[in-house]
Amino acid sequence: MKWISSKKTGIILFIFIVFFNTNSFSTEKNGHTMDLSIQKILEKADKARGNRDGISWEVSILSSENKKKSKMAFNVSARGFDTLAESIAPAKDKGNKILMVNGNMWFYKPGLNKAVPISQRQKLIGNAAYGDIAATNYAEDYEATPMPDDIVNQEVCHVFLLKAKTKNATYDHIHYWISRDSGLGIKSIYFTVSGKKLKSAEMKYDNFVEIDGKSQPFISKIIIRDILIKQNMTTLLFENAQIKDIPNHIFNRNLLKK
């Protein structure tokens, strides 16, 4: 009888824990219930990929596609999720600029009367889209649904299905692996609108920035591979990440000519 009583107590306790865990992070916003635990997980991962009050970095993009190699490089300045990327290589592209503000993106090059709108989903080079060089805002741009946990490179990971809320997002939907230990996004699979696997990505965080006296990890490398043609690979190398004040005027598309 004691065993039965203990078993019942255990079942009741289990039900209580499950109920508590599924409701303790819920809140009401605009009439919709939000799981803040998922929101916070995504926000933390975003912070290691540009979501800061002011930050700059250099990104070099190395592409190997159909045995053809090419390279581009940009100086990037970001504040929150607004981003300005200025081309520094190759020489013929110097002066070209890519601006993203409130999820909208524009391209400017010397000789144009004004910046022209572009999509984050457009191809930049190799497997990289224009949106890949900007700060990520997965916490706001995508609706997240939890999937079963997984292990990647011996790290236990949260796995989320991210579905784009708008057409401005870089990808229609993503499977996203976030390390439970570090809170960093370490793997992605990107899908087309029709649901086909498009490409995969692995992320490294060997850069660090100083924030409030603490060293925080920041993205250092993204390796993007074509799902169908594995040898087609694009590597993004992030260097010289620095926390700094970013002036308002650089996000004004009417001033890109200056």
UniProtKB/TrEMBL annotation:
Keyword Lipoprotein included in the entry's annotation: yes
CDD domains to which the protein is assigned, alphabetical: LolA_like
Name of the protein: Outer membrane lipoprotein-sorting protein
InterPro entries: TP_0789-like, UCP028205
Protein source organism: Desulfocicer vacuolatum DSM 3385
Domain Uncharacterized protein TP-0789 intervals: 83-258
Keywords: Lipoprotein
Pfam families assigned: LolA_like
Key word Ribosomal protein present: no
Lineage: superkingdom: Bacteria
